[in-house]
């Protein structure tokens, strides 16, 4: 099976080609993550994929069957995020998977534990390590509803997770930003973003909407002035 290629420029889809040759996909991804200007990529590849030349854009290449797997396990992470939402926590969930089997799950527990390190990724990593009896989580994928922070990225590297899949980006604390591309034990950490991002974003919006309304409803304290 080939791969799907989607190229978006200025929020307009320029190309959506299904079952593209894997060799072509690898070449596109290689050049894209090396930050070669996308105009140059397109001059090289437009005879193969399309006649249009974007000025800038986002490129996503993924095997169709892998996309289905990612959607499924991100759904499990969303279930944990919903659980966090119901407990009054920022709704973030994480799941660690190897060979399509869940090894560990986690949700945000910062308020519950009064612990700034109690992030969903950290809990999922701990649970997976306990299940395996090994701190090395090689050949695993972590699915998380929001882009990991610097702390969680460090834990991901140290536990030797091979792939990170996240839903929505975190423009303030997120770690995966070009040109900051990272390596894991000498190998580039595989990163996929935007999986079921609409659902993650909607859950986050609901949480902060409720939080803002609760703050408005808080009664003013009676203050005695002596």
Shape: globular
Strand elements, count: 10
List SSEs in N-to-C order: EEHHEHEEHHEHEEEEH
Please tally the helical runs, counting DSSP H or I stretches of 4 or more residues.
7
Class computed from helices, strands and strand pairing: alpha+beta
User: How much is the radius of gyration in Å?
Assistant: 20 Å
Named CATH architecture of the largest domain:
3-Layer(aba) Sandwich
Cα distance spanning the termini: 78 Å
Total discrete domains: 2
**What is the fold-level CATH name, i.e. the topology of the largest domain?**
Cytidine Deaminase, domain 2
Averaged pLDDT = 75
Low confidence ranges: 8-15, 21-39, 47-62, 220-226
Strand content: 15-25%
Main sheet strand line-up: 5-4-6-7-10
- Helicity range of the residues? 40-55%
CATH classification, class level of the largest domain: Alpha Beta
Query: Regarding quaternary structure, how should these chains be classified?
Result: single chain
Which superfamily, in CATH terms, is the homologous superfamily of the largest domain? Cytidine Deaminase, domain 2
GO molecular function, one term: zinc ion binding
Family: Belongs to the cytidine and deoxycytidylate deaminase family. ADAT2 subfamily.
Catalytic activity: adenosine(34) in tRNA + H2O + H(+) = inosine(34) in tRNA + NH4(+)
Binding site for Zn(2+): 119, 149, 152
């Amino acid at each position: 099976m080939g791969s799907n290629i989607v190229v978006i420029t200025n929020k307009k889809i320029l190309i959506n080609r299904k079952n593209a040759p894997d060799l072509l996909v690898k070449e596109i991804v290689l050049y894209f993550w090396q930050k070669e200007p996308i105009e140059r990529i397109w001059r090289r590849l437009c005879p193969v994929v399309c006649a249009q030349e974007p000025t800038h854009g986002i490129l996503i290449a993924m095997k169709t069957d892998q996309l289905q797997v990612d959607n499924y396990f991100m759904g499990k992470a969303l279930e944990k995020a919903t659980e966090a939402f119901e407990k009054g926590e920022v709704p973030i969930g994480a799941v660690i998977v190897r060979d399509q089997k869940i090894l560990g799950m986690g949700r945000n527990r910062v308020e519950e534990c009064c612990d700034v390190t109690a992030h969903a990724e950290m809990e999922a990593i701990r649970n997976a390590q306990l299940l395996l009896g090994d701190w090395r989580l090689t050949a695993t994928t972590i699915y998380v509803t929001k882009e990991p922070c610097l702390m969680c990225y460090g834990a991901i590297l140290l536990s030797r997770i091979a792939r990170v899949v996240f839903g929505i980006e975190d423009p303030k604390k997120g770690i995966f930003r070009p040109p900051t591309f990272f390596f894991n034990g000498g190998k580039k950490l595989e990163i996929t973003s935007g999986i079921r991002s609409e659902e993650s974003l909607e859950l986050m919006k609901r949480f902060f909407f409720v939080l803002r309304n609760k703050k408005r409803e808080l009664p003013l304290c009676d203050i005695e002035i002596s």
